[in-house]
Structure formats: C-alpha cells, structure tokens
Amino acid sequence: MSCKINEMNSKQIFSKKLLYRAIKDTIPVMTGYIVLGMGFGILLRTKGYGIGWTLGMSLFIYAGSMQYLTIDLLTGGVSLVAAALTTLLVNARHLFYGISMVDRYKNTGRKKPYLIFALTDETYSLVCGESTLQEKERTAYYFLVSLLNQIYWVTGSLLGAILQQMLSFNTEGIDFALTALFVTIFVEQWITAKEHRQAVLGVVVSVICLVIFGPDHFLIPSMVGITLGLLGMRKEGSRNE
Amino acid sequence: MNKLHDILLVATVSGVTILLRFLPFWIFGGNRKTPKVITYLGEVLPYAIMGMLVVYCLRGISFFLTPFGIPEFLAVALVVILHWWKRNTLLSILGGTLFYMFLVQVVF
What is the pLDDT of residues A93-107, one digit of tens each? Predict the structure, then answer.
C-alpha cells in the first residue's frame, strides 16, 4: 500500500485540497456504505462466518448487493457454476458502467486496474458526472474517490462483524440509504441535464421490464432495452441535423 | 459448512465480478480510438442507468400487500423534495432514510 501512495505523489497532482474534495464528495457514500456494510457484516456473522470472511469478501468481491446474495449462496450450498451464473446476472450492469468509463479512464496509467476493479454503483455515480476538475487532477481524484469508498465499505462490514453481538437498536429500514442515494443522484442529474429523455427512458423501460419479467430477472432485459432506446435516439438525432 | 467449497465459492463470485468490470476495457480499451457508438453511450448511459438503479432498489415493493409500497413512496417523495429544495446530498439521504425507518418501524 505504502509504495502505491509514493508512486501517486511522484506523478499525479495530488493535493490536500483534492483529498478534502474527495472526502466531501464521498460523504453520502460513506453514510450508505457504513450502514450497508454493517448490515452485511452482521448478517454474515449470524450465519457463522467470522471476521476473516467479512474482510475477504469486502476486499475481493466488493459489490454490495452481490455480497448480500453470496451469504445466501454460501448457506444454500449451491454449486460453483450456479454461483458464477448468479454473479453474471446480478453484476451484468457493471459491463455498462465499464462502457461509459472507457474514455474517462483511458489515460489513468498504473492506477487503471484498481479504478476498474473498484467501479461500484456508487463510485460510478460519483465519477461519471465529474466535469469541473482539471485534466491533471482527474486521475488522482478518481483514485481517491474509489479508494475512500472501499475503505468505508470494508470499515462498515468489519464494524458489523465485530459489533454483531452488542447491537440492540432496531435497524429495520436502514437499507433505504442506498435507494435514497440513487434517488438523490437521479434528481441531481435531472436538474443539471440538458434534456430528460434519457432519464425518462431509463425509468420507463425498467418499470416495463419489471412488470413483464419480475423482480429477479428484469435487469438484463432493462439494460438491453435502454441501450436499444438510446441508440434509437442517436439515429433520430443525426437524422434531424 | 464445507470450508473449501465456501472459499472456492467466494473466489468464483469475486472472479466473475472482476471479469465483468474489466471486460469492456479489454474490448474497447487499448490504444485504438474508441468507437463513436461507445463514446455516445458513455455520455448518455449514466442518465438512464440511474433511473434503472432506482427501480432496482424498489423492485421488492408489492402494491397488493400491506403496506402497498406507501412507506417507499413517501420516503422517495421526501428525498426528491429535499434534494430539489436544498441540493444537499447528505441531508437528502439522511432525511429520507430516517423518515423511512420511522415509517416502517413505528407507523406501518
């Protein structure tokens, strides 16, 4: 870890100001990740898996909803093939995050592998809209945001695993933090966007797919539908020009 | 609990997740110029995907069983209003979450 930070100092513009900004921008994710991470740690512990398992999963899987689901996979004793397929379906959306970040992460050098590995829903939502930073500062900022978010997630899940026996307050409904985060970003994008067709398309296609395919299978049809819809809009736009 | 199977299972989930995250960069990355379609999708996808993620979070709601998704509806409405009004992300998330917890624990 220490060598990574040295390397960062030598090349990138990495200032205290940038760190403060990254911390400020990630505070909402911190709230959500500490809470959701704790939920994960608590749940995993109650199923008989100790702190080592929590740490390993939060370090190497690092995908919130998938980690919750992995608890079910573990206790259900499913086969490795079934586990792989489930992961493929639940995390297919990461393909789409990647597609939208190919250009943005193009010249990020040696930090690129970590940036790609750490591209969660929340990190994506923070870095995909960033437009005010200078070229030189971007990579360092992306890296800080990605790293801070994983630190929050690991800390939260470890806290959950450690405090499992001591907690007594009713945490029911606390997982709404994630929904609230996405709604907040959605509203923020709505306020700043030039046009709203894309946002409306995303919601409408997803709701239609949810009704047709049900809650467990609607993500992939939604993503296909959204992509086709966006490509259709593009054609229409170029024809009008 | 079979420890080896459990370790392999976690490794499998981790491996597939990593693969999905890296695949687009392997296909469209490199030094070649990014295809125009991908650049276009990169610009517009975030707006559409955030809508999808909101729906994804609310997918478990049943409109036919009590409480008919009312707590979710009210809490989402509060988040929208709070954010439109103050544009303070932390306030919107904390306000919405505490209100939702109050609704599901005390009211419904």
Answer: 888 889 889 888 988
Number of domains in chain A: 1
Chain A residues with CB under 8 Å of B59 CB are 210, 215, 218
Question: DSSP letters of B13-49?
Answer: HHHHHHHHHHHHHHHH-SSSPPPHHHHHHHHHHHHHH
Domain encompassing residue A44:
2-170
- State ipTM: 0.83
User: Which chain B residue's Cα is nearest to A220?
Assistant: B52
Q: Is residue A82 domain-resident?
A: yes
In a domain, residue A97? The reply is: yes
| C-alpha distance from B19 to closest chain A C-alpha (Å) | 9
Which chain A residues are closer than 8 Å to B34 by Cβ? 102-103, 106
Closest of A197, A199, A179, A180 to residue A189, by C-alpha = A199
In order of A153, A155, B24, B70, the CA distances from A62 in angstroms are: 8, 12, 18, 32
| Interatomic CA distance for residues A28 and B84, integer angstroms | 16
CA A239 to chain centre: 36
- Give the three-class secondary structure for A216: coil
Q: pLDDT of B42-75, one tens digit each?
A: 778 878 888 988 898 898 888 888 788 999 999 9
Q: In this complex, do A103 and B39 lie within 8 Å of one another by their Cβ atoms?
A: yes
A83 reaches B (C-beta below 8 A): yes
Q: Is A214 left (phi over 0), alpha (psi -120 to 50) or beta?
A: left
Is the residue at A15 inside a domain?
yes
Closest partner residue to B97 (CB to CB) among A174, A198, A226 is: A174
Distance from CA of A70 to the nearest CA of B (A): 7
Does residue A70 belong to the interface with chain B, where contact is any CB pair within 8 Å? yes
Contacts of A117 (CB under 8 A, 6+ apart): A62, B18, B21, B22
Cis peptide before B67 (omega within 30 of 0): yes
